[in-house]
Specification:
The protein is mainly beta. Helices cover 13% and strands 38% of the residues. It has 1 helix and 5 strands, in the order βαββββ. Strands 1-3-4-5-2 form a 5-stranded antiparallel β-sheet, with helices on one face. The two termini are 24 Å apart.
């Protein structure tokens, strides 16, 4: 994957006070939700079928996210299979406070499967 600074993010979000956990940092579950949304945006470029999330491979938080940080979710298609699409999502936070450094927060591979109305896997194409 190229350097995220050279890519356009699928999603960019400023973290707000309502997004904090009891420790005052951004709730990890919120970041997971945005990872899923960003990955789905990327996956939709490969299929117009209904896509469901089936796996999010090992998400390790490398750095905390704080209120006011601008969080960017960069995506890259890793694999398009018969019924599945795997997307890598890389998450960076640009600190709100000077010197506004950008830090890597986490990355994950998310697997989406194309399904029909009853939920049975179908070809992505």
């Amino acid at each position: 994957m190229g350097a995220p600074s050279q890519m356009q993010p699928a999603i960019r979000v400023v973290m707000m006070p309502r997004d904090t956990n009891p420790h005052g940092t951004i709730f990890g579950g919120l970041i997971l939700s945005y990872i899923d949304q960003a990955g789905a945006i990327q996956a939709r470029q490969h299929s117009h079928k209904k896509l469901v999330t089936v796996a999010m491979h090992e998400v390790k938080f490398i750095a905390p996210v704080f209120v006011g940080d601008l969080v960017s979710f960069y995506t890259e298609t890793v694999k398009v299979g018969n019924t599945s699409i795997t997307v890598r999502v890389t998450v960076d936070a640009r600190r709100a406070d000077v010197p506004h450094e950008t830090v890597r927060v986490t990355h994950a591979e998310v697997v989406y499967v194309a399904v029909d109305e009853p939920g049975k896997p179908v070809p992505v194409k």
